[in-house]
Design goal:
Helix content: 40-55%
Radius of gyration: 21 Å
Number of strands: 11
CATH topology of the largest domain: Rossmann fold
Strand content: 15-25%
Largest sheet: 5 strands, parallel
Oligomer: single chain
Distance between the termini: 26 Å
CATH superfamily of the largest domain: P-loop containing nucleotide triphosphate hydrolases
CATH class of the largest domain: Alpha Beta
Number of domains: 2
Order of helices and strands: HHEHEHEEEHEEEHEHHHEHHEHH
Structural class: alpha/beta
Number of helices: 13
CATH architecture of the largest domain: 3-Layer(aba) Sandwich
Strand order of the largest sheet: 2-5-8-1-9
Mean pLDDT: 86
């Protein structure tokens, strides 16, 4: 079967049906403790099953930490939270060699694992730690292993990093460079709830203890579904749509529309195309589709491109957002199809 094929093996069709059912169960469990945020939950699930990492942007108090910890609970995965601070060192994340006495007078170094050795890692306020510590975290994300004293230690699959940033408080922070932001598959915006959702939050979270969630997935099943996502058929015109969309974000490209050039300083690179395809594959599978559709690309375009489309001062002064630029590009490209 090729990527542009129109059919799946019978086993894969059955697996997609199971994934859709499991995803429905997962959302049902999370709804017991998380009110609203359906789009955020979907984007987290897409990122997880596409084997990517995500950066969550949102002000404090929007249940980011609660959502991530309960997501791990519904999947029977190990969860660890790392609170990034200016004095956090790389070894506080990865672990270190400790000199141990074996009881006979002999001493040897033993590796003590850091909190990065978990299935789901929450890097809380990642921009509050200095560059060296950020780099250690991002290296673990990219390589899925850490190297201590010349010895490599593999991180157990599945391995999923969710980092958070506070968009309104930048004093004393170390902003992630664009090259490091590019390592994140998604930048997920966590917005304020609606009035109805906020009323429901007030009613359901100020009473007794929070309910315990039922596990609907094991780590082995997550890995199986991640492999399934990679086998989802992608028609040729979907590849072309993804490539054309990314190329139009680059102001120096002949493909870029004239209106974009004064608004965007730098556009997205080839990694954005890869993540658009992977994200669309994962979304199609979660929706129970047996082939990637153009609407899947459109749905994942914003979180994939949001941190890869760098606005100019002109755009900032005119109140133009990356979201509006991406939305207009999709509308124009879709109209040409």
């Amino acid at each position: 079967m090729t990527d542009s094929g129109s059919s799946l093996q019978d086993d894969d069709v059955a697996a997609i049906d199971r994934l859709r059912s499991t995803y429905s169960d997962l959302r049902g469990e999370l709804s017991k403790v998380i009110v609203g945020q359906d789009r955020v939950v979907e984007q987290l699930a897409i990122s997880l099953f596409a084997r990517g990492h995500s950066l969550l942007m949102g002000v404090p108090g929007l249940a980011k930490t609660l959502l991530v910890s309960r997501l791990a609970e519904t999947m029977s995965l190990n969860f660890s939270r790392i609170q990034f601070t200016p004095d956090l060192m790389p070894m506080d994340i990865t672990g270190t060699e400790i000199l141990q006495d074996d009881g006979t007078g002999k001493r040897s170094f033993e590796f003590s694992k850091g909190p990065v050795f978990a299935n789901i890692v929450l890097a809380d306020e990642i921009n509050r730690a200095p560059a060296k510590t950020q780099a250690a975290m991002l290296e673990a994300m990219q390589e899925r292993r850490v190297t201590i004293a010349g010895t490599s230690h593999e991180l157990e699959a599945p391995f999923f990093v969710l980092a958070t940033q506070n968009p309104i408080e930048q004093e004393g922070t170390y902003p992630l460079p664009e090259a490091q932001l590019d390592r994140f598959m998604f930048m997920i915006g966590v917005d304020y709830p609606t009035r109805e959702e906020e009323l429901e939050i007030a009613k359901t979270t100020t009473g007794g203890d929070m309910p315990t969630l039922k596990s609907v997935l094991t780590g082995e099943q997550v890995v199986e579904f991640q492999n399934l996502v990679r086998r989802m058929p992608v028609p040729d015109h979907i590849y072309q749509f993804a490539v054309d969309l990314v190329r139009r974000t680059r102001p120096e490209s002949e493909d870029a529309p004239e209106w974009l050039k004064p608004l965007v300083g730098w556009g997205a690179g080839p990694r954005a195309v890869q993540y658009l395809i992977l994200g669309a594959r994962a979304r199609a599978a979660l929706q129970g589709s047996y082939m990637v559709r153009q609407e899947d690309i459109a749905e994942v375009a914003e979180p994939v491109l949001r941190h890869r489309v760098i606005k100019t001062f002109t755009a900032e002064s005119e109140g133009v957002t990356s979201r509006s630029v991406i939305s207009r590009l999709i509308d124009e490209l879709s109209a040409e199809e």
